[in-house]
Write a structure and sequence with these properties.
TPR-like_helical_dom_sf; alpha/beta; 544 residues; two-stranded parallel ribbon; 13% strand; Serine Threonine Protein Phosphatase 5, Tetratricopeptide repeat; 43% helix
């Protein structure tokens, strides 16, 4: 289609008040660098309330046809809308200079526009003067009154609850609150629950542990030990002996064998209330996860292991309520027997040994699956996973054939989030398949009314991330978004008689350099959230 045909379609849509369609047609026609195309698209943006984009197209139109008065007039109106009165007045004067002497109607309209600009300028100046005057008056009145500290009138218990909400959200803010005033400092010193989160780093771990354990009366609820703290010459801290380990709920340790420490302290099987455990041995020889760390029926819901050896069979023996498993290892052990994890909803696997275990895991309730840095093709892994209940799928820095992944996604009818990042030669074909309708069987999509139903793959898909996939292009992404936009009733009935597909809400395409920047406004207009950062400052610094 030539630019003129697209332009005419855009004019027709604009006259019919179908501004979204008009915008698309004008964008298709923009490549020929025609003044009328950019001026018409600016008018469409103005109707849609996209004033920034309208000004950009108006500037382009003026550059292509500097002797035409129309774009100057539009620029004057747009600047007036954003209350830039000086620029608006300048544009109006330039438009007047370009109107023919005999065109009295246009001349009168522009004179009226300039009068409106001058009136708006006068009103803005008066408002500014009044505001400054009132501000000065209020400042003088406020300086004559004594400042009142109303927060200090609150009951100490209520103040403690407010501080707890803040510290629970960000434990680092405790030190900030201590420096505000004497009243806050006294309240915090005498509220043990505010000291329940202990994070030990390279900065005086012994001193910090002593102070936190003393202030909390040993009731540490969350313990995080970073690797630099373990390297301290006085590690482990003496204060840790006074921690009520049976009350600990969250434990994250790096390069520290906490199980051996508890054994040496004669505290085997004491972590009865632990719900989250993270063990990271990235900087040392891989250790085994000791079963002595747990009681017979622990409360652990989330287990993260990095460079840590463990037995998958022990997961079923000790972790009866496990919901999340995140393991990152260079090699994972092979399984001889099937491991039943009936409650697991979140599984993250990273490393070379993904193929060794997935064919032996029974995960009937799996909802979130994340696969990272697999050295072999993941086709076998996908064949071993049942995607019927899957809500989120992430494949990162791995090898997978497009055909296998497409077959997997056709069965993932409940999928809401999809991440295919740092993949090469796969993402573009998969995105293209996601925008093309195909025939669902009733068993696949649980549609009882008919044996086969037309629809899109992953009909509930709302969020997709294709960052750093070098093959992804603009066309497939545009078709994917369009295929999931709300259709008129007649078209919807024709395309999908029984199934309604979810509109795509967010798209992240950072590091995808093949995406046409001219389409970025269209993406932002049709998505709630869109990100396309071509390069970070660090990656682009070599060009400077």
């Amino acid at each position: 289609m030539t630019w003129k045909a697209s332009f005419n379609q855009g004019i027709k849509s604009f006259r019919d008040s179908r501004y979204e369609d008009a915008l698309w047609h004008f964008t298709e026609a923009r490549g020929d660098q025609q003044y009328t195309v950019y001026d018409s698209r600016a008018a469409t943006y103005e109707k849609l309330g996209k004033l920034k984009e309208a000004l950009q197209d108006t500037k382009k139109a003026i550059g292509l046809a500097p002797d035409r008065w129309q774009s100057y007039t539009r620029a004057a109106r747009l600047f007036l809308s954003v209350q830039k009165h000086d620029a608006s007045s300048t544009m109006a004067s330039m438009a007047l200079d370009r109107i023919k002497a005999g065109d009295t109607t246009r001349h009168a309209e522009l004179l009226k526009l300039r009068d409106d600009i001058n009136e708006a300028q006068r009103v803005a100046d008066n408002f500014r003067k009044t505001t400054i005057k009132d501000a000065r008056k209020n400042a003088v009145a406020g300086s004559q009154q004594y400042a009142q500290y109303n927060f200090g009138k609150l009951p100490t218990e209520l103040v403690g609850e407010i501080f707890s909400l803040i510290v629970d959200e960000s434990p680092e803010t405790l030190l900030v609150l201590l420096r505000v005033c004497q009243h806050w400092r006294t309240t915090i010193w005498h509220t043990p629950s505010l000291w329940a989160t202990l994070i030990l780093t390279h900065r005086n771990p012994n001193k910090k542990a002593t102070q936190w354990v003393d202030r909390s009366n040993g009731h540490i609820r969350e313990l995080r030990v970073r690797a630099p703290a373990v390297e301290h010459r006085h590690w482990p801290c003496n204060a840790l002996a006074r921690v009520r380990w049976d009350r600990l709920r969250v434990c994250s340790v790096e390069t520290w064998d906490i199980a051996k420490y508890l054994e040496d302290m004669s505290l085997k099987h004491i972590l009865g209330h632990l719900t989250i455990l993270a063990v990271d041995n990235y900087a040392v020889v891989p250790r085994s996860l000791r079963s002595t760390l747990f009681v017979e029926s622990p409360m652990v819901r989330s287990l993260t292991m990095v460079h840590t050896n463990f037995s998958w069979n022990e997961l079923t023996e000790y972790f009866h309520k496990l919901l999340v498993v995140d393991t990152q290892s260079f090699s994972l052990p092979s399984l001889d027997a099937v491991v039943e994890l009936p409650n697991l909803v979140h599984l993250e696997l990273a490393g070379a040994g993904l193929l060794n275990i997935t064919n032996r895991l029974a995960l009937p309730k799996l909802q979130k699956l994340r696969l990272c840095r697999g050295s072999l093709v993941l086709d076998t892994v996908l064949h071993n996973i049942r995607p019927a209940r899957l809500l989120e799928l992430s494949i990162i820095q791995s090898l997978v054939s497009p055909s296998c992944l497409i077959d997997f996604l056709r069965k993932a009818t409940s999928l809401e989030r999809l991440e295919l990042s740092h993949l090469s030669g796969t993402t573009n074909e998969v995105v293209e398949a996601l925008s093309a309708p195909f025939r669902y069987s009733s068993s696949t999509r649980n549609v009882a009314e008919s044996s086969a139903t037309a629809g899109l793959m992953c009909p509930l898909l709302a969020h997709i991330n294709v960052s750093y996939s070098p093959d992804i292009q603009t066309g497939p992404l545009v078709r994917l978004i369009r295929s999931r936009l709300p259709q008129p009733d007649s078209q919807a009935a024709e395309l999908s008689p029984t199934v309604s597909d979810q509109k795509l809400l967010s798209l992240q395409a950072d590091g995808c350099e093949l995406i046409d920047p001219e389409w970025i406004p269209w993406f932002r207009n049709n998505l709630q959230k869109f990100s396309c950062i071509y390069k970070t400052k660090k990656s682009a610094s070599w060009k400077r």
